[in-house]
Amino acid sequence: MLRATEVEKVPPPIETQSGNFVYYSKTSTNGSKLYCRRLVANANSEQILVDSSMLAAEHGCEIKNVLVSDNHRYIGCMVTDNDGPHTETCNLMVYLIEDTGKAKHLETLTDVFNFVFGTDEMLFYTVLNDKLRAHKICCHQIGKPQHTDTDIFTEQDDECFVDVTRTKDAKFIIINSSTLDSSEVRVFPVSDIVLEKAGKPNTKLLRSRQRGVEYFADHYGEEFVILTNSPLDDSLLSLKGHTLPFRLMKAPSACPESGNWRELLSVADDEKIEDVEIFRDYIMITVKRQGRPAVIVHDRVANTNAELQLPNRGNCVVRPGANPQFDTTIARLSFSSPVHMDSVIEYNLKTLKACKQWASVPLHMDTDEYVIHRECVENNNVSIPMTLIHHKSVDLAHGLPTLLRVYGAYGVSLEPEFRLEDIPLLLRGWVIVLAHVRGGSELGREWYSAGKGQNKSNSVSDLLHCAQSLLERGWTTPEKLAVAGISAGGLVVGAALNRSPEYFRAAALHVPFVDPLSAMLNPDLPLTKVETAEWGNPATSVSDYKTIQSYAPYDNIRNARSDRPSILVTAGGLDQRVSVWQPAKWVARLRDRGGYSSATGAQLLFFPRRNEGHFYSEANRDDGGYIKVHSLLEKTPYDYSIYIQWIKLLREVGDIESMRAARQQMCSNLSVPEDLVLEWVADEEAQPDYLLSETVLTNIVDLYELALRDRLSVIMWQRYIDFIAGLVRSRIANVRDTATVVLGSGDAILLVLRRAIDATCTHYLQSQALWSQYCDYIEQKISKADDKDKSELIELLQAVFLERLAQPHTGLEDTFAMYSEFTTKYNEAHYEQQMVEANKMVSNTRAQCKLRNSFEDSLIASGGSWHAYAQYIDRLAKDKRTNPNEISMLYERALVYNCYVVEIWSEYISFLDGAFDDKSLALKTAHRAIRNCPWSGKLWAQTIHFTFVQAGKDQAEEAFMRASSTHAVTYSMVEFGQAAVAWIAVLRLSVAANLSSESDLLAECEKCMDIAYSLDMNTADPLLFFERCCTNAVSEVSEGVEVARKMWIRICKARKVCTEAWLLSVGFEKVHGTVSSTRSVYRHAAQRKLDSPERLFDSWLAFENSVGYVPEIYAAERVINAQRHLIQRKMEQETNVPAKRPRSATPEPANMQVSGGNDLMAESANANVASHETSKAAEDINTTIYIKGLPSTYTTTQIEEFLGGSASVDNVAPITDKQGEFHGQAKAVLKSAAAVIAALDKNGTSIDGRFVSIHIYKSDHRSHRKPPVVEVCGFATGTSNKQIEEIAKSAGTVIRVRRNQPGDTAFVTMKTYQDAVKAKDALDGCEVDGEQLRATLTSSDANLKSAPKRQDKAPPQGKAVVLAPRKAATKRPVKKVNVQTRASGPAPAADSSSVAASDKKMTNSDFRQIFLNSKSDSPT
Asked: What's the pTM?
């Protein structure tokens, strides 16, 4: 292949004249591209302006586009990052061409998509948004910072792309705003741009956007030339749809609006205008005629048309070349064909003759030996063209190896152009076939419309007909036919493979768009909204949904087939157009469906290019690692090691400015240790004459401030003091002058010493050294001061001493001695009085020091563990004399050794919020916390909360976006969920305060849910705190209940076995749904293999009991029994050991006798309902709540009003401390479950800037009295819990009956002690299934032991006890059990269909048989 593409000779460079210069590019000896110019009058005056190899080496980029300003002084180079993640945007590098001809780099504009020069020093560029849509045009003045650029135009429509161009005569700037099938143009004169004034120019709109109407404008003389498909009468749009032909129109410059358009030139109906090039006397029009190119030259003077003769009989691609000259008769056209590389031909528009040509021809390839011809295929009376390329010696009838290419989308034609990868195939005798299916524009706009939207399946059908035609004509065979498609062409290929895989032996799909349905349903993807005109909108249209689903490759994969072809699939890891998950999931489903094995011989290869985008480039290279490291930082901005590597590389190349920017970026994301800061200080001090540079000294000061901002360090304070003192006391006057400029005119040493004391004075061990320096410095100033200043300084120093004596520290005795010397020296007259007062103060401080000494010893012994610090903090917090600053210092000291412990940061932030009136302290510390622990969702949540309190919603949103845009948090659902909960709380408060709309809240909740459930499910929160918060917030929005319901469905499907998720979904339905919807969730959940099925079963039965509908109760019991049976079978299969039979809801008794009687059925049903109602009352929700975060000024009445007033609140009890002070905590008893739910909905409400926390109050479970239990034993193996429950129910309310295995002791839990006594009496001695029961009353409650006992009362002999039926139904007779109490003699014989009650020990098989019998008796 390499040999085939060697160029026979290097053609001369293509020169373009502009003014007095000729510009051209050429290839250097080392293979790099050089952009050069020379004077028109001097062929030897070459100047190399830009060297692509130098750009790659210095900046790690490759050139995409180059433009020169009109005055020939500036060059703009659009460059792309070779190894960066932003594959769609570029950087714009601006160069100044000096008089020597050397280009000097001036500036770089980032994130530029396209640009054009307006005036000599003004340029315009477009900017992409996060959806890859060019949406904004900015105006930049060369030499000014990019952040000062003016926004000229911003397109708000999400379907539109904007572009900026300049007219051929350089008089107007044109703003194009277009969709896939519409456009609008705004213009303004270049002369309107005034460099000294910032502002938007006045633009003129030529025609408002209209679906189906496209137009483009240029200007010459005093007229605009417009290429448009706009009809003269807009009513024609409704008749012809979007297939109106293009024609040229003109309009005067003064009033170019559409009402003044007049037709200038039109073409035949079978022609489509592709491009227009304007010259002073001519207009060159490139058209397509029956899919082949043609070039028409319109003579404006003579008003005549002529046509140029194109090479290769029109089997080529023709595009206008570079034609910057307006006043000329020479025009350039660019040509390409399947066997001709790109070439340029100059035509004389007057003579219509070619006058010059630049061409390259591949070696070993005689282009005359290859033929290019057009064939057609019929598909339902539509002729589908195909272009065939092959060697003229081959015989098509012999079935040649063939590559069939297809695209067919967006109106983009599949052109017969030069493709490097086709040349080796042609040399080996292959046939290349281009299928011009509907969806392209080969045959005009109608051809495009016939293959888009609802007609997209035509593209697939056309491809299959092309393949079928090749096979039927014998030109190839299924074993020799391969098919290839790129991007949207991959969709056509994938759909064709689903329908007729037997046509092909191999397929190549490059970045294929194989899952259009999922992509178009996902509004977060960049191009979803933009491309609705192409594919339809399945989110809003059922018809579009079904249409896309009918042809989507991913949704139509058949099961394993032996005739599948081998497939190669590629993907780009950074592809922003076709996400890598699309081809990946398609390949995964293909493999899952089968058909790829050694037996079939078919292979399925998936080749993802990790660092590539949609447009793969071979230019990637390492460039010393700089580009790769920078790319990694863009992806992982919280990776400490990558920052270190990046800064090291910058240090090696000596790029101090980039290194400073890297340091700033690192400090904004991470906490920087002291040694690294000192290393950076050394970098600054290594700069030449750094003491005389204001910039360097400012950077050093900023670095010290940075280190002291993030952590406590007495050593760093000492270094900072020494640095400031060295500057101020320098013997060099220029250094002192520079220091004055940087530090200010005040006493810098005194200021930094005072700051150091304020920051470290509460450090018990290390504060003395800095404090001593402070005192010494003040004494030095006293010795040099005059009388007035001396008196003020003495007062200051005395205050410093007294402040220090009141603060516990290790050098207390030394401080006291120094104070004695100070008093003797400066205030001897009042020495005795001052020393007595100081001694009292010191005595109190000594006692505090004694306490602290023991804790300091514990810290040393533990090595600075957090546990030791926590005990220290707890002890000081209980002492009212403790200064909060001292506790804050302990937290800071603990963080020196434990800076990555999230719990410390979280407690510290909470402490600052409660202990200090300055709430900004908590926010600053929260920012520090996330720089140290950026992975913690809890810390991000606190940051979001305090940001909202301090700075408002917008800043809180920015904090959440930072949290959710980095892998540091989104690696875990739990961590992301904590941050998301805080953000949702902010939105709920904003909605309540009318700062945000309900739609914003709804959209954010859905977005957070999408992010959370795209993460690893192994990191999910088992308590579903995020999910509950999200769905509760959505439920509050009008019409948001249905959205919340869909969320719970999604949650349950994703969590699968999580019982908690299903129970929460049930709880949601209980509040917002119906009995039927709640029961439906229970049924779905019961059929899942849950992690705790008994919780669900108990909850379901309790729900059905509360509803009280007996048939549904027994229906639930049957489902539960069946599931328990399946669980038991599964356990037996896994362990090969008979598992314990799970507790049955209603085991069938062994010796039931049939008895009729509707009255009995009704009586039993009523008793059952009453029992369930009683059970519901017993299990009712706890109505006591706990409230935290209320304002300390709130009264009991205000708390009651906050919770809903007297209608909802039964009692409110504020909680106070030992001194009787209220701190915002209270306990309240509400009147109903509805009141509790309403109160819990207020959880997170803000009152006076404080978040109120509300939850169900849970007292110590040990203080609860255990319910009385009756132990029952002595019953037969087949006796069910239901039988025992019915006997106990006659005595009172039964909470539950449980036992571990059949035959074991049964435990009957009663509601009250009196009920238990009655139940014990009823059960003891009662005969059931031929066995006498024995019952005893048990309870660990001491109060129960003292309760009076009733005498045993035996029921009358022979009295029958009737049990309730399993289900009250008219088709099934009620079963009755005859129970004899203390009767002697044999038990009655059992029915032959039932299991006999005997002393024989029953096996698992017997229990299964009982279960099966009960199932067979159940009504259908």
From this structure: 0.46
